[in-house]
Amino acid sequence: MIKLINTIVEENADGKSLPIQKPKASLEFINRKQLEIVRKKLQKKIDLLENEKSVKKEVFEPDDKLIQFASDFHHINESLSDFDFIAAHDLIEPLRKISSFSSRLQDIYGDDLDERQQNYLSIIDKSSLKMKRYIDDLAHFAQNAKAELEYEDVSLHEVISKVIGTFYSEIYKSKAQITVECPDVVASDKLQLEELFGHIIANSLCFNKENSPPVINIASQKSKEGFIEVSFKDSGIGFYEKYLGKIFKPFQRLEGHHSDERSGMGLAVCKLIVERLGGSITAKSSPNNGAIFTVRLPSQPECI
Questions:
Q1: Which of 3, 54, 134, 258 is the most buried (most CB within 10 A)?
Q2: Could you give the 3-state DSSP secondary structure of residue 94?
């Protein structure tokens, strides 16, 4: 239907007035109006398509910084692989020779050496063994940094119970008391969790108070942010919280902890593992009041 826009009045032969329509002008007006509507709709579609194109470009065409980051990450993995080889061959071999020749000197000349000379050989032997342990732990750290993660549903109670079983001898000797209340299931890498929890439990068993059986309480709970929080509370010697920035770094050992024969890599490995799993680890403590280590793990990592 064409709406009447303009009309004129003319008289017919009988003298009656008749309205005369001008559809051409009306059509032109409507056509212009419709064309304007169509033009606006097309412009909106064009703007929308350009916006989608821009978004896709940002998503699928990474910028220089992202490309550089990926390249750096690749080089880091290559460096870690190189370090595994170097640690296994170039660094360990000289230590083996030092230890071997030290033992030979002891066997051949042991009876002729005085107490001071015996002490020198003992220091050489202990130092070479200690250095080997450091290199082994650092190589293990590098292996964890590039290990491929395999996600599955993991019962925290089962994996923690399995880890505790590996410390049977230490628990029996120290008469340690360990309670586990971890009903939660988390989608994670089982082997990495075993190592993570193993280092924390070993830490609690090692740094206990003298002549006092260790008490360790392990519990889990769900957080509002979608994380599973696993806390390890012990009754050990504790530490000053001013050292929190230090304890998770490689080869860092606190005052009062130097009698331990370990290298100081345990908590550094914990931090590495938990961050690769998309979580975090924190600690609270004070001297002679034990410590609480809290591990936060995503219940369902984004990669699944």
A1: 134
A2: helix
> Rounded to an integer, what distance in angstroms lies between the CA atom of residue 296 and that of residue 222?
9
| Largest CA-CA distance found in the chain, in angstroms, rounded | 153
283, β-bridge pairs: 293
**Can you point out the beta strands (E) in 98-214?**
151-155, 177-181, 185-189
Q: Answer for the pair 68, 104: CB distance below 8 angstroms, yes or no.
A: no
The CA–CA distances, whole Å, from 87 to 22, 102, 142, 160 equal 96, 21, 10, 31
Q: What are the structure tokens assigned to 88, written together? A: 């296994």
Task: Give this prediction's pTM.
Answer: 0.65
Amino acid at 217: N
A 10 A CB-CB count for 186 gives 26
Residue written as token pair 């988390």: 186
User: How far is the CA of 249 from the CAs of 68, 164, 238, 265, 280, in angstroms?
Assistant: 26, 25, 17, 7, 14
Task: Quote the CA–CA distance of 211 and 190 in Å, as a whole number.
Answer: 35
pLDDT digits (tens, 9 = 90+) for 74-132: 455 555 555 555 655 677 788 888 888 888 888 888 888 888 988 988 888 888 888 88
End-to-end CA distance of the chain: 59
Q: How far apart are CA 94 and CA 294, in angstroms?
A: 40
Token pair listed for 129 = 């063994």
Tens of pLDDT, residue by residue over 62-73, are 555 545 544 554
CA distance 185 to 193: 12
Tokens of 104: 């030979």
Q: Within 13 Å, how many C-alpha atoms sit on residue 291's CB side?
A: 24
Residue 255 phi, psi (nearest 5): -60, 135
